[in-house]
Specification:
The protein has 202 residues and is α/β, with parallel strands linked by helices. 40% of the residues lie in helices and 18% in strands. The chain has nine helices and six strands; from the N terminus they run ααααβαβααββαβαβ. Strands 1, 2, 3, 4, 5 and 6 form a six-stranded mixed β-sheet that branches. Helix 4 packs across helix 5 (77-89). The longest helix is centred in the N-terminal third of the chain and has 17 residues, at 44-60.
Length: 202
């Protein structure tokens, strides 16, 4: 179902209330819960997607989970996947960044060997309160059949209160991710799904 964007970047709360058949308080609460910002600062497109999901879930008698897409990308394919997934789900999007930036050579040496050894690497502080999310999707590339080191580092920080979905992006087939899933479960997290996504460059 498509919606016309209300004026002022989806801040006309009365129009939104009528369009989605939701109480004004429902909309304000959705913004606080899912965006942690005043209504006027909420991202318009994602707000509309979120309200549509709330409307559908209300019909079913349930409520959607607050979702974060947490991703690491070296070549760009994982970033493209994460951006599209965040738009589709109405989720927030945060990038995992290594302290020391890699180039094509350092991604291979020592990057591939670090991945094979399930090594963690130093990452910048994650720009999100992970405890605030009910569902976290962790996405990253596969290097030599294993998750990239930065993904291992982020996975070790996941809160035990969130449901975790792992997405591994690879151009060489499927079947990856179970080693990472095992490590995440060993930390006490609930892994709800492991997804493999094909890509030529990740």
């Amino acid at each position: 179902m498509s919606h016309e964007m209300p004026e002022k970047n989806a801040t006309d709360i009365v129009a939104l209330s009528k369009e989605f058949s939701l109480d004004i308080d429902d909309i304000r609460n959705a913004v606080v819960k899912y965006f942690r910002a005043p209504l006027e600062n909420a991202q318009g497109g994602n707000l509309l997607i979120t309200l549509e999901k709330i409307k559908e879930q209300r019909k079913k008698g349930t409520m959607i989970m607050k979702e974060l897409i947490l991703y690491y990308s070296f070549g760009g394919a994982t970033r493209r996947y994460a951006e599209a997934r965040a738009q589709e789900d109405g989720a927030e999007l945060v990038e995992i960044k290594e302290v020391t930036k890699r180039n094509g050579f350092t991604a291979w040496i020592p990057g591939v060997f670090q991945a094979m050894g399930h090594t963690k690497t130093a990452i910048e502080p994650i720009e999100a309160d992970l405890d605030a999310y009910e569902k976290i999707v962790v996405a990253g590339p596969i290097w030599a059949g294993n998750a990239a080191p930065a993904v291992n580092s982020a996975a070790a920080l996941l809160p035990k209160t969130a449901k975790i979905e792992l997405v591994l992006v690879s151009g060489s087939g499927t079947g990856y991710g179970e080693k990472l899933a095992a490590a995440v479960r060993a930390n006490g997290n609930e892994v709800t799904e492991v997804v493999n996504v094909g890509a030529k460059k990740n």
